[in-house]
Structures are given as C-alpha cells and as structure tokens.
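Two proteins were folded this term; both appear here.
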Amino acid sequence: MKTLLIGATGTLGTAVHKELSARGHDVIAVGRSAGDLRCDISDPAQTAELYRRVGRVDAVVSAAGDVPYKPLPEMTPEDYRAAFTGKVLAQIELVRQGLAHIAERGSFTLVTGILAREPIPTGSAASMANGALEAFVRAAAIEIAPRRINAVSPNVFTESLADYGSYFPGMGSVGLDEVTQAYVRSVEGGQTGQVYAL
C-alpha cells in the first residue's frame, strides 16, 4: 500500500511511520524540514506540488498541525487564523486536493486531539481547530465514498508527559503504541466518518 505520511518526523509521525512500514506499507515521509519530501501543508500550492510529485496513493495520513497556546485574553484574531490555517485548512486541503490522487477505495486519516472534547486553559485555539476537523470528517465521509476518511483524536502521549503533562492535570495519557493502532485501524480497516478518541 502506497501511503503518504504528513508530519512523518515528529513524535507521532515517527511512531506511525515505524508501524506502517512494519506492516508492509510503502511510506512516503513528508515534513517541513525533513523526510523523503518537504512540504508545508498550510500552503495549498505546496500541497498541490506534493501530490503532483507523488502521483497516485492508497492512503493519506496526517500527523501534523500547528496551533498557538495562550490565555484567551491574550489571543488575537491572527492567532485564531493561524490555528485554523495551520491545522484545519491544511488538513482539509490534503483531502480536497487528494481526491484526485487517491485510489478508489483509499483512505484519509487526519489528526485532531483531546481538546476537542476536554478543553484546558490556553487551549481555546486547539479546541476550535480539533472540533472543526472532527465535524469536517463526519461531513466529508458522506460525500467521498467509496473513499474513506477518519480522524485520530489522542490524549497527551504518555511518552511526552514529562514535557506536557502539567498542561493536562488529571486527564491521564495514551501510549504512542495505542495511537498508532488507531492509525492502522483507519488506514487498513473499513470504517469511515469515525473519530477515534483515545
């Protein structure tokens, strides 16, 4: 299976890359500054060039998306636009442009996060972005069949608790191994329109 993996060199992307490769996928790793190909998916023109270069694929997998974290009174309109552009529109463009390049029964897997359902202080932009993406996934699923689309919505990673755990008090965590299995389920399974909340 030819799989295009966006955000392939981050913490999540590295784990997903390892798991999909071990399962026999031909993974094309994409990142802004590392990987097989370079692409900033917040720029639709770069996304178009990426698809032109890779051609036809069986799956598009995203582990990328940037949002600012600030207390609400300090957030600016530009901050919210940056969150929407960097996480929501960027991944929507992967789907919108990818429809012409994905196999008839191919799949898209986007990434959201726990803040769509469990907000934290300083996380309003992330909550907005994640919620918007989850709504998009459900809507897109009814239009793109037989192609499929799902989202993986993880809690903070257990492996990252030392760095980020204090921002998520009492919320637990999820191991990267469990998150990668949700990606496998989305890519290799048969479901569509799902948000795999972990």
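Next, the second protein.
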Amino acid sequence: MNEFTQRLNEVENHLQHNDLYLGYRRLIDCVLDFGEKSFYKEIISYSDLYYNENSTSDNKAKKALELVEKLKQVPPPSFQKEETLISTNNVEKAYHRRNFKLHPITFDLKSREVVGLVGENGNGKTTLLRLICGELKPTSGEINYHFSNAKPFSFELKTKLVYVPQRIEVLYGSLMENLQFTLTCYDIYSEENRLLANVMLARLGLWPYKDLQWRQLSSGYKMRFELARTLLRRPKVLLLDEPLANLDILAQQIILEDLKFLSQSIRNPFGVILSSQQLYEVEKVSTEVLFLEQGKLKIQGDTNELEGDFTIVEIDIENTKEELLTALSKIEIKQIKFNGGSYIAYFDNKISMNNILSEIGKSSLKVKYIRDISKSSRRFFVN
C-alpha cells in the first residue's frame, strides 16, 4: 500500500468514527498533496457544507467519504524522500555587552521533522533561531543549508527558509487579498491562485473568517493566518519563535498537531524548529527536543550520571509527602523533591512506570496527575 492510500484510509477511519474535525483537516492535507484544481474546488465546496450550521454530522461525514473515494481512484502523488535540510556545526554567538554566550550548538534538521526548542527566557532560543535564519552571523562555527545552493543571508535562501517571529508584522487588507498577493509573488495566478488561497484558509481553521480584514482577527488567529501565508510559500524550513504564546491550550494543541501533519506532506515536506514555553505540548509532536540552559545545549535523550541511574516520575497528589513515601515503600523512592506544586520522585532504573502505577493502585493516594519524565526535557527544569 502506498503512503497516499494509507493516509486516505486514516481519513476514512476518522470520518467513520465521527471524528469529523480531524478527518476534515487530514482530508485537506490529502487534497493539497494531490495538487489538482478539480479537487481544490471539491474541498472548497465541502468546506461550505462543513461550516453550514444546518448540515448534520452524518451528512458531513457522508460527503467527505465520497471525496475520499474519488481521491482513491486517481494515481497517487510521488512521495518525496526525506533529506537533511540544515546542519549546524559548533555554532556559537557571543554578546560581550550582555555578558551572554550561546555555546557550541551541533544538530541536524531533516524534512518531516519537528524540533522543539525549549528553555527559560534569556537562554538563547531566539538567538539560535535568528542565527539559523540569517538575521545574525555566528561568532564561530558554521551552518550548512543542504536544500539550496544559495549563499547564506541571500534573498534566494530566505524564500525557502522562513522565520516567523513572536511579534508578527502588521498587514492591511482582507485575508484573501493577503494570501492571493503572497501567491502572486510565487508565480501562481488566476484561478489556481484563488482556489489555493481558499484551501489554505480552510486548512488553518480560518474559513469562518475569510471575509474579514486582517485587523479584525484576534492575536491567536493572526498567528494562524501567518502560518497560512507562510505555508503558501512552500518553505523547506520553517522557524517559529513562540507561536503558541497567544493561543489557548486547545488551540496550542491543534496548531502543533497541524504543523506535524503539514510538515509530513507527501509532495512538499519541510522541517520545523519552534521555540516554546509549552513543554508538554511541544514534546508530544516533536521528533527531538533541544533544551537551552544558560546558552548551553541539552538534548531530550541526554542523561547525566545521576539521571541515568533513575526512573523519574512527576506526581501531584492531595496527600502528604509521608503518605506518598508509605504508599511506595515496597519499591523504595531513592530521592524526592518538591517542585512547583508537585513531587519529583526518583526510583531505581529497574523500576518501571508500570511497577509504580501498580503500587499506587493498591494505595489510597488521591492522584491528580502523574507522568514519567525520565526522558522528558521536564527533568531539566527540576530544582
């Protein structure tokens, strides 16, 4: 079974189980991968139905499944192989007046990867993004761009490497006008221009607002629109600085999920590096998480001597510390810390999460939250 057919089957499964929102978004992804105007028209017509308050869920699912069947009847698009897009080799940046230094950074970014960049404010996340996009020059080390032969810091390179800062630029005019203008800059005109702009508005959840002016959007929807405008440029690398800052928790999860899905496009895959304070949400979708502390890089899989000997669990309970220790006495907590409202418990690394959950199940502990952070960047934030 080819990749395109497999994705269509996944869409079909979502729709059959009444997960219309996810099925709808993933169906648009398949239409974008196919890249034919006839199917752009089909998904635009379906979007009108999808957002029609008088349309039932059963009717929406039925019409979507009909479109899935049509897509199954056409030859699938060619699958573009994964490739290394960027390699950083001991990249450093020193700010002598600020007494801050970004220490040697080495990592690769491949197509279809989402790399999360986390750490407290002032530890170098934005500096690293600006180095990669060419706004800053490194003090030492090098950044290699494998997807283009264009010179560093050139306009040609920046057409395929897009940096979206936390504070996005002010735009004027309607959403459609801005998207269509973006497409004309990339030689897409006439009917295809209008169709593709509409499809991208639908994909980023902006269909109900497509007739609005940019200034009428909330800050969260302005970020969604900026992503829509950026993705029409078909970037090879997308750099996002705190894209979740003005979004509620549900919108954060959806945007991150969408970035993961869209970056895995069959025809136009790209790589993503995003900085964020939303650690758990970022970890769910990231291929790799880079943690910056005082300008020094730690990688999600890294362990130091202490952490390598332990299974580390974060637990929030309504009980006392003594009650927690008693409940888990048979598997022995090696070390325990209180960190921002929850306990961080260290067990011998031979103790699995299943063992811990089993003992908790036998106890009367009132657990509000529990998570294994042995391999999570969360462990770097523990005091």
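Confidence is low (pLDDT under 50) at residues 303-307. The longest strand covers residues 84-95. These notes refer to the second protein only.
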